[in-house]
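Renewal narrative, Specific Aim 1. Our central claim is that a sequence can be written position by position from structural information alone. The example that follows is taken directly from our test logs and has not been curated for this report. It begins with the structure tokens describing the chain, in the order in which they were read.
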């Protein structure tokens, strides 16, 4: 019988590429991960890993087992959700991930309604960039998360994660009538590796130039303060620009950011996740969009 816990480690190795990265994600030692994967090979009866020095890659059989592992783990998530539903209403801890704008604007009313309707539920929020959410969900560090995607940035798909759309919002440019008009300006973007940074770079590339990035700032309130001080131009989503500084003109662009709820496949029927997504959707319907 194949151990689902070992299958999870194999799936993470397929996604992360190294034993060390898997160990960090699941808070094991690299030695423990290696031992578990070796035990899985013995259970499977065929080589799953090919080791060359310190490099480990999956064999054809390893890749085949990862495909089946995803289906097995998804069914286990469904079973966990179904069992939770038999225990009554949502209760216990609920680990929620959110990017900063959503944490500030959407979560306070959503969590107030959620805990008011379900006093036994204990939401615990952690700020996280959407680019890191899939790994955190797969590792069990989060139960549900708010993520975003942009028109100009194709979403990163993950077979183990599913999403539900909540709302979309326009994007604004500070101080200039168009992206092309900001060709010669200094730019303020989010840190490299974030979706917001990628969106800004691609918007400039679509206008025919590479931006000269002077500042990397993730907090949009700070971004607007820098723009007000003449330190550069920036792209800012609507929720971050509800109350902009008076001396920062904003131009609405034909770009949008979409916010979604994300959770592990099969786990969406868990009572706590269902209640959270419902609360997110209700709060989103009341946003000043």
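The sequence written for that structure reads:
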């Amino acid at each position: 019988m194949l151990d689902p816990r070992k299958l999870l480690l194999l799936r993470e190795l397929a996604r992360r590429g190294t034993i060390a990265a898997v160990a960090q994600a699941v808070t094991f030692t690299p030695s423990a991960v290696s031992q578990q994967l070796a035990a899985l090979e013995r259970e499977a009866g065929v080589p799953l890993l090919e080791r060359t020095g310190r490099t480990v890659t999956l064999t054809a059989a390893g890749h085949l087992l990862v495909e089946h592992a995803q289906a097995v783990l998804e069914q286990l998530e469904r079973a966990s959700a179904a069992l939770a539903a038999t225990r009554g209403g949502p209760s216990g801890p609920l680990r929620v991930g959110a990017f900063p704008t959503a944490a500030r604007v959407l979560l306070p009313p959503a969590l107030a309604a959620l805990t008011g309707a379900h006093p036994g539920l204990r939401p615990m929020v952690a700020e996280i960039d959407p680019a890191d959410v899939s790994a955190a969900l797969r590792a069990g560090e989060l139960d549900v998360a708010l993520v975003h995607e942009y028109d100009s940035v194709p979403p990163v798909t993950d077979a183990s994660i599913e999403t539900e759309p909540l709302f979309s919002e326009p994007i604004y440019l500070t101080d200039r009538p168009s992206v092309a008009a900001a060709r010669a300006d200094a730019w303020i973007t989010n840190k490299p590796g974030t979706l917001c940074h990628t969106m800004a770079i691609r918007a400039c590339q679509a206008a025919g130039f590479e931006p000269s990035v002077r500042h990397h700032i993730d907090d949009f309130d700070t971004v607007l303060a820098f723009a007000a001080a003449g330190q550069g131009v920036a792209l800012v989503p609507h929720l971050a620009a509800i109350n902009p500084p008076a001396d920062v003109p904003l131009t609405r662009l034909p770009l949008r950011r979409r916010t979604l709820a994300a959770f592990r496949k099969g786990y969406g029927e868990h009572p706590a996740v269902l209640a959270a997504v419902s609360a997110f959707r209700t709060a989103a319907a009341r946003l000043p969009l």
